[in-house]
Specification:
This protein is α/β, with parallel strands linked by helices and 181 residues long. The protein is 27% helix and 28% strand.
Length: 181
Amino acid sequence: MSRRVTANVYLSLDGVVEAPENWHFPYHDDATEEAVMAGLRAADTLLLGRKTYDIFAAAWPDREGEMADWFNLTPRLVVSSTLRDPEWKYTTVLSPDRLVEELTELKEKPGMAIAVHGSITLVRTLLEYGLLDDLVLMLHPLVVGSGDRMFPENGPRLPLRLAAATTFGSGIQSLTYTKDI
């Protein structure tokens, strides 16, 4: 059985995924944090795009707690054509040109899930190449109004199957979709 690649994305009702640090925190509570931690505990590798890597590398090393420990100690792969010498420990750079080949090989090796957080351009690429197994959307009960959206206008058709749904007291819904097979 191959390893699963699971993307975790914070999303507003109008589909905005850009800068969740500006709108997510009023909805953050213990239950949503535990749901995110459950997903992290099921993974032993973190896969990030370059922009998200830069944000995380600037934030997580200064934090404490179980989630900070996971982000700081878990081996991570960063897809980038420009990052040469990552300073955040346990980071390996993957070339975008070799992403499909290397991730396909990694999925076949023993291990737990491979978690993707944020990294919307990367998530779209993984969906395009059929490499994403689970898409976990943390749907927030607000309309942001502007910003980059999860699925761009005139994008490809993408059949998915709802595998799980949970509504939290904060109003966030966790919606897990899998490939429609």
